[in-house]
Write a structure and sequence with these properties.
Layout: E1 2-7, E2 10-14, E3 20-22, E4 36-40, E5 53-55, E6 64-72, E7 75-80, E8 85-89, E9 94-97, E10 99-100, E11 109-113, E12 119-124, E13 129-136, E14 141-149, E15 158-162, E16 165-170, E17 173-177, E18 198-201, E19 214-218, E20 221-226, E21 229-233, E22 239-244
Parallel strand pairs: 10-14
Antiparallel strand pairs: 1-2, 2-4, 3-6, 4-5, 6-7, 7-8, 8-9, 11-12, 12-13, 13-14, 15-16, 16-17, 17-18, 19-20, 20-21, 21-22
Length: about 260
């Protein structure tokens, strides 16, 4: 299993599989739909029971799959393919589909990042468009913040806030908005040069960046997960430190989570 996080005295986990399908009721493969699980915990986060309890997934109208899962505002949030975001309310014991504004009812959610306040989520599909949205877990509104033409097929896989600005990570590097992202909701105009008023910072100066990567900013330090381990970079993309892995067993760092303490 893969640990999602702690919320409401429960430790939530998900199947550690690359494909976590969700099927609507009545579908011939409904019995194969993904189910999450949780472990009740007591003081200090210690388990009070040795058995995992099943948490049924959200009801969907069309077949889809879970692309990411995390804890936001003390609630379990699931990102899906073409079906947006679902938030679980432990009090009501039900899933709620987040409402999308600006005529974007369905988004392919590639990353969810829990922050104090609005939450960033990325999307990118085959239509040559990469978008950055924010999710308000109190109102369950999804608001389009930025939309820009994709540089080929290079969708964002992570997003974060740094000094009041949005940044998105791609295979080819990092795109950072140099404007106040909260001040304007209008999409970026499409130009032949790509994303205007944005700074492209290489994610690494050496090696091949393949597959799904991860990026996190902890106490002002930037960390990048690669197909062969973990690196720390500066704001210009230069490598500061490398945590190499054994040349026989490569470590694919696909997720970096932020906690109160960095270990």
């Amino acid at each position: 299993v893969r640990v999602i996080g702690m919320a409401g005295g429960r430790l939530y986990v998900a199947p550690d599989a690359g494909h976590m399908p969700l099927y609507p009721p009545g579908h011939q493969s409904h019995r194969n739909t993904t189910r999450l699980a949780y472990l009740p915990t007591g003081d200090g986060g210690r388990p009070t029971s040795g058995n995992l309890r099943v948490l049924p997934g959200p009801r969907v109208s069309v077949p889809t799959r879970i692309t990411t899962a995390t804890i936001i505002g003390g609630k379990v949030c699931l990102g899906t393919a073409q079906s947006g975001v679902f938030v679980h309310d432990p009090a009501k014991k039900q899933w709620t589909a987040c409402r999308a504004k600006h005529g974007v009812p369905y988004v392919y959610v590639r990353a969810l990042l829990g922050l104090a306040g609005p939450v960033a989520l990325c999307s990118g599909g085959g239509r040559g468009q990469c978008s950055l949205y924010t999710l308000d877990v109190s109102t369950l509104d999804v608001i389009l913040r930025r939309s820009a033409p994709a540089r080929g097929y290079d969708p964002p896989f992570a997003a974060w806030r740094h000094r009041g600005r949005w940044a998105t990570a791609h295979r080819s590097g990092v795109t950072r908005d140099t404007l106040a992202a909260e001040a304007k909701l209008a999409p970026w105009p499409a130009t032949p040069q790509g994303w205007p008023r944005a700074r492209i910072v290489p994610a690494t100066t050496q090696g091949d960046i393949r597959g799904k990567l991860a990026m996190a900013v902890v106490a002002g330090r930037r960390f990048v997960g690669l197909h062969d381990g973990l690196r720390e970079i500066d704001q210009d993309g230069r490598t500061l430190r490398v945590w190499p892995t054994d040349y026989i067993f490569r470590v694919h760092v696909r997720e970096l989570k932020l906690y109160n303490t960095f270990e």
